[in-house]
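Pinned message: reference record for Ribosomal RNA small subunit methyltransferase G
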Amino acid sequence: MSTEQNTGGAAAPAPEVAGTVFGERVGLAARYVEHLATSGIERGLIGPREHDRLWDRHVLNSAVLAEVVPSDAKVVDVGSGAGLPGIPLALARPDLRIVLIEPLARRVDWLDEVIADLGLDVAVERGRAEEPAVLRRWEGADVVTARAVGPLARLAGLCLPLLRPGGAMLVLKGASAPEEIARDATAVRALGGGDARIHEVGDGVVDPLTTVVEIPRIGAPRPKRRKERR
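Predicted structure (tokens):
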């Protein structure tokens, strides 16, 4: 068996199921995958080992998040990286208003180029979700998304402040999601989050299904206790 890595090049054609997910925008989705397979790998946004699984593991896996996003929602994608899940979500759901938040300049430059080429009405913000200026510009979101950014407790600290009361963070996670929810429940509640709910989405599209953890914002973070001076 060869151990060579695919370091970029033409992407695989769109699988038939992509038409079901993206409808008349499937051509744009294929163009996005082409960007990932070429400049995305060349410029370090996607690992070379991912070249042959861009459709199922990344793009379709992200796009099926649309199943649990309400209509006409204002969506903030935290730590967007190569635009995942934000760009596939925008392609699958043109009714959504989406901003991608990404701190690294080289990634922001790539995102701007790709979004312009695809003609998407998606904003890109260079910065970190916890920065006051970013929070002021994008707070009040209906949904905040994240994928492969960190543990739930940390994600709650980044995502919940950007949400309106009653909004929800939707985080793509793996098979260990139930254990992570149990481990971080106290920290999440202290940050203003409610009880977590797990969704398995993408039936008939991806295998395994995409695991999404939903956590609503039900309040403000509890103030930290000041340490008493001795």
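Pinned by admin. Summary line: The longest strand covers residues 163-173.
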